[in-house]
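hey can u check if this looks right to u? its 392 residues, i copy pasted from the old doc so theres a chance i mangled smth
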Amino acid sequence: MNNICKATAIAAIAISTTDAFTTTTRTSFPTTRAATNNFIALAVTSHRPRYQSTQLYGAEDDNAQDNEIERLRKMAAKLRAEVASLEADKANQLAEAADKAFRKFDVNSDGEVSLSELKAGLEKMLKTDISEARVKELMNVFDKSGDGSLQLGEFVTVDRFRNQLEALSREEKRLAGEAAQESKLQEQEALLAEARLEFLNEKEPTTSEKIISVLPYLLPLLDGVQYGRYLLGPADAEGANPFVVALALLYTLYRSIPFSGFAAYFALNILSGNPSINRLVRFNMQQAIYLDIALFFPSLILGLGGLIAGGAGLQVPEIAGELFSDVMFGTLCLTILYCVGSSLFGKEPDAIPLISKSVKDRMPTIDMFDIDGRFVPSESRTDDDDDKSKKD
């Protein structure tokens, strides 16, 4: 009875072992499952310990797995060998093709292919005309030694030459496209800059604009005439200077208009903000306003000094007031003469200390406007706007 149990157990183990290795590649048969079930039943009823059959099954399973791994390794080694063989065959074929092409290109059989031989050979093989410049580019790609010719070791197949020519052609088209796009962009930027320049008139002033640009300085001159009463003298005196007479008449007319100073101030301030007016005219309007404002401070200082001296019981000599007025009027006249002369020559009178710098800071420039012509304050400008303005 024990022998029968042993035989049955061994048969069941063999069947179940076969089933363990075959279920990974195909579906198990019902007979295998039945044999396994019978083995389990016999193992339960048998007086032999179960661990013996388990040890037997595990040993055979490990052997089968080792055999499978070894088989896969052999297959991988065989595939690598086949790939290496194919690559070697391909390399040999390419070498033979290159050698054959090299002999065709090397017309004078001197062992190297010159630039002219390469050009002639490619035109013959590809049946197309190739420029010498393109052949030079091709030579530079494959001429590793840099001697201006191709040796056998540097020579490649005609297909490689064709592919390289196509690559060079694509690169040339790409560069041409980028150049055309860049040219179009620069043209658009030039048109934009021209439009912005037209919007903000910063062109060279015409003769009439030069003459108009000096008229705003009448405002500080008329407001400063009071300082010249000692130098100019009475306008109704016999033999008076015609300039003094004309200035006196103009001053009388100016004072006869109510609030003429405020009206002139606001008119110049508004007109100087019109970007269509030439820059020189706008600059002189602003500078005339600043000069007129500057005249207020000496009068204020003189008045305060008189009050302080009177309060202290001091008598200010009349000659001191006369000298102060003469210096003020002389300085004003020299400043206005400088501005007038510079403007008539078409140059901004921007050398007056403090005042000219303040005027320049207030003058709008092209980079203060966006592409739509809207004014953008400096505190609202972004880095992108600054970059675009620099390009323009």
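The CA atoms of residues 178 and 184 lie 10 Å apart.
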